[in-house]
Design brief:
Order of helices and strands: EEEEEEEEHHHE
InterPro entries: Serralysin-like_metalloprot_C
Largest sheet: 5 strands, mixed
Helix content: 10-25%
Oligomer: single chain
Number of helices: 3
Shape: globular
Protein name: Haemolysin-type calcium binding-related domain-containing protein
Distance between the termini: 23 Å
Strand order of the largest sheet: 1-3-7-8-9
């Protein structure tokens, strides 16, 4: 998916496979539209200069890669929305940092690190929009 210099909204649903976003400025949003995709099923990580968002869970291998996310500020997306939650601005980078020491959401749960789970949950902002 290729965005222009304006504000773009990218929609992603379960089964969409492996998508890449090439951004070029503006205030941009990635919206996960499937009910099966929740904030608990998303896994964010730095992959070279790219931001990779993996959808975990049963029968899923879906990913979204934001190309050049760490290379140039104009390549960033500013908001990720799922269910009634948003991850915005610097909280996207904070989420990547928090998840970077683990391999998956299952490993965070297995580690029993309540403080880390609380921190990760606090980065998501509840909204009134579905």
């Amino acid at each position: 998916m290729v965005g222009g210099v304006g504000d773009d909204i990218y929609l992603f649903a379960r089964g969409d496979g492996h998508d890449s976003i090439l951004e070029d400025g503006g205030t941009d949003s990635l919206v996960f539209t499937s009910r099966e995709i929740t904030r608990e099923t998303l896994w964010l990580k730095k992959d070279g200069d790219n931001l990779r968002i993996q959808v975990n869970g049963a029968n899923s291998g879906d990913t979204v890669t934001v190309l050049g996310y760490y290379d140039n500020p104009k390549n960033k997306i500013e908001m990720i929305s799922v269910e009634r939650y948003q991850l915005a601005g610097d909280n996207i980078d904070r989420m990547v940092e928090a998840m970077s020491t683990f391999t998956s959401s299952e490993s965070i749960s297995a580690a029993g690190n309540i403080n880390l789970q609380t921190h990760i949950n606090s980065l998501w902002i509840a909204t009134s929009n579905p």
